[in-house]
Specification:
Elements lengths: L11 H12 L2 H17 L6 H16 L14 H4 L10 H12 L5 H8 L3 H14 L2
């Protein structure tokens, strides 16, 4: 798995998820976002890196869909976001995304371990907090 930055779409897993979202019927995108968040929350014995990256990307899409949220500036984000066409999120999605970000940030998460080992945890957490703040 290739990772080139701390942003929610700066890894192969998230880039592939963004493509899946773009290719999906717009009505299916909310289901896909909810599933990615729930899989992170349901992970037992630590959250693996792949699920963490998918949930982080999903949380970023949900955050970008919230009123007044900043735009996601990434060449790897879903194209529909760059077209100012975020999905209309159900009110349960932002809290679910927030909870998934909490899970991603736990010490037994593959995401946390990756950034700690790379000695870049501080920057990664700042990026995660930026997304979390947009969910409020």
């Amino acid at each position: 798995m290739h990772v080139w930055g701390t942003g929610p779409f700066e890894n192969d897993v998230a880039e592939a998820f963004a493509t899946e979202l773009d290719d999906a019927d717009p009505d299916q995108r909310l289901i896909m976002l909810r599933r990615a968040e729930q899989e992170a929350l349901d992970a037992e014995n630590g959250l693996d890196t792949e699920r963490a990256f998918r949930a982080f990307a999903a949380a970023a899409v949900v955050a970008a869909s919230c009123p007044g949220a900043p735009r996601i500036e990434s060449d790897y984000a879903p194209e529909f976001l760059t077209l100012d066409d975020p999905p209309k999120v159900h009110p349960d999605l932002p809290p679910l995304a927030h909870d998934a970000l909490d899970r991603i940030e736990e010490r037994d998460s593959g995401w946390y371990e990756l950034w700690e080992k790379a000695d870049n945890l501080h920057e990664a957490v700042e990026t995660l907090e930026f997304i979390r703040d947009a969910l409020v």
